[in-house]
């Protein structure tokens, strides 16, 4: 589902009405994160998670960190729950053999950059990665999951959305109160345009370092300037993708905002293709959406990939060194 608009509005009536349920959600999360981890890996575990529900840039962060670790001579493996996939795991994701219905869309994308495991039981996935030779494990979206001990936790935050109205689900976008989450985090990575990053300045506990980054589109050879497009995206905040295309000069005639991880039915794809042909538009989507497309349809769609750029990794380098992760 797409996040409700009232999650990002202060003093919204619906937030007030839902606040008792939010308090119950907060209490349930607090009980969960207090549990003692049942597994401690023999190699460092770096968790990439969030306090908000979805759409904060975890996947680009996992890709960037995996690439950084590989450059350092490490062998990172990524462990994911595989949201949207049917396989229980642990299973090593193979982009040539698996589909999004098997392992989820994000693991299919992540597997193009580093060995990626899908496991509903996070501890079992971490043990499988250990056994396969990982020197570092990246735990994707496991910040509130207590099953594995985390040596380092990085919380990603969208600079534009921030922490919304500050309420927990369903009254707001937070999985837990921001101050409690940041108190457990080692780093907060704020992702977005510079003006938004300058505006978003929450108080941080002394243990939590701040890093800033932004998502930059990769060159694709597509002359986006003046290109009339029908863009579609099933990510946390599709409007960010549409804005990126407009920033490249594309004429986004229409943007189809789908639910996060929404399956592509034959009816939906036929409708999109028919509209694009009728209006002489170029179909464009995200990398994460592209891995869910049927093979026969992919050739009809242009893909705009984005990558996280972090101008200064110094603070994170120091955090990594503290847990024994250095260049080999």
From TrEMBL:
GO terms for molecular function: ATP binding; lipid-A 4'-kinase activity. The keyword Kinase applies. InterPro entries: LpxK, P-loop_NTPase. Keywords: ATP-binding, Kinase, Lipid A biosynthesis, Lipid biosynthesis, Lipid metabolism, Nucleotide-binding, Transferase. Pathway: Glycolipid biosynthesis; lipid IV(A) biosynthesis; lipid IV(A) from (3R)-3-hydroxytetradecanoyl-[acyl-carrier-protein] and UDP-N-acetyl-alpha-D-glucosamine: step 6/6. ATP binds at residues 52-59. It comes from the Bacteria. PANTHER family: TETRAACYLDISACCHARIDE 4'-KINASE (PTHR42724), TETRAACYLDISACCHARIDE 4'-KINASE, MITOCHONDRIAL-RELATED (PTHR42724:SF1). GO terms for biological process: lipid A biosynthetic process; lipopolysaccharide core region biosynthetic process. The keyword Transferase applies. It comes from Octadecabacter temperatus. Belongs to the LpxK family. The gene is lpxK. It catalyses: a lipid A disaccharide + ATP = a lipid IVA + ADP + H(+). This is Tetraacyldisaccharide 4'-kinase. It is an enzyme of class 2 (transferase). Transfers the gamma-phosphate of ATP to the 4'-position of a tetraacyldisaccharide 1-phosphate intermediate (termed DS-1-P) to form tetraacyldisaccharide 1,4'-bis-phosphate (lipid IVA). Pfam families: LpxK (PF02606). Its EC number is 2.7.1.130. One of its GO terms (cellular component) is plasma membrane.
């Amino acid at each position: 589902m797409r996040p409700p608009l009232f999650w990002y509005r202060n003093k919204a009536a619906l937030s007030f009405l839902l606040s008792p349920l939010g308090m119950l959600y907060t209490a349930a999360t607090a009980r969960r994160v207090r549990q003692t981890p049942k597994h401690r890996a023999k190699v460092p575990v770096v968790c990439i998670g969030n306090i908000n529900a979805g759409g904060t840039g975890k996947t680009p962060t996992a890709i960037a960190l995996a690439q950084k670790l590989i450059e350092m001579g490490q062998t990172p493996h990524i462990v994911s729950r595989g949201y949207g996939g049917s396989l229980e795991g642990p299973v090593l994701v193979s982009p040539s053999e698996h589909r999004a219905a098997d392992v989820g869309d994000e693991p299919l994308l992540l597997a193009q950059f580093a060995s990626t495991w899908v496991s509903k039981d996070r501890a079992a996935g971490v043990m499988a990665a250990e056994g396969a030779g990982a020197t570092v494990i990246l735990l994707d979206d496991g910040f509130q999951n207590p099953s594995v001990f985390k040596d380092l936790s990085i919380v990603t935050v969208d600079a534009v959305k921030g922490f919304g109205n500050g309420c927990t689900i369903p009254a707001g976008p937070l999985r837990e109160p921001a101050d409690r989450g940041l108190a457990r985090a080692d780093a907060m990575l704020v992702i977005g345009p510079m003006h938004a990053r300058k505006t978003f300045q929450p108080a941080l506990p002394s243990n939590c370092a701040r890093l800033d980054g932004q998502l930059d589109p990769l060159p694709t050879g597509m002359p986006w300037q003046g290109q009339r497009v029908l863009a579609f995206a099933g990510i946390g905040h599709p409007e960010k993708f549409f804005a990126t295309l407009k920033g490249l000069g594309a004429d986004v005639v229409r943007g189809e905002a789908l639910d996060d991880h929404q399956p592509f039915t034959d009816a939906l794809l036929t409708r999109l293709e028919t509209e694009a042909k009728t209006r002489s538009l170029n179909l464009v989507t995200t990398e994460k959406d592209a891995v869910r497309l049927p093979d026969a349809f992919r050739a009809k769609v242009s893909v705009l990939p984005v990558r996280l750029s972090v101008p200064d990794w110094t603070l994170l380098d120091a955090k990594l060194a503290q847990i024994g992760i250095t260049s080999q």
